[in-house]
Amino acid sequence: MAFPKMADKVVETDVLVMGGGVGGCPAAAKAAEHGLNVTLVEKSKPERAGNCAPGMDEIGPFTRDGVTALDLVKHDKEGGQYLDPNVLYKIYDSSLWALEELERFGVTMRWDDGEYYWIPWFLGNDAKNWLRVHWLNAKPEMAAAVRKRGVNVLERTMVVDLLTDKDRVAGATTVNTRTGEFTVIKAKAVVIAAGKFLRHYDPVTPVTWKYKMAYEFFPEASSGDGHAVAYRAGADLTGMEMIRTSDVRDALVMRGGNFAHNDGIFGKVFTWKGEEVSRAPGGPLDYLELARKGMEPLYLSLEHLPDDFQKRIEAHYVDERFLGLKIAEERGFNPRTHRYQKRFTPSNRNHATGIDVDENLKGSLQGVYAIGDCAYSGGIGCAGAAIAGLVVGDNIHRYVSAAGEPALDEAQLESQKRIALAPLAVKDGTEPMELECAIRFICGEYAGMFRSEGRLREGLNRLGSLRREFLPGLMAKNPHYLMRCLEVRNIMDMAELHLQASLARKETRGEYVRLDCPERDPSLDTRRICQRTEKGKAVLESREVPELKPEYAREKK
Amino acid sequence: MSSTPVKIDYRRCNGCQRCYDLCPSDIYIWDEEIKMPRVAYIEECRFCGICWMECPKRAIDITYPAAFW
Question: ipTM strictly over 0.90?
Answer without folding.
Answer: yes
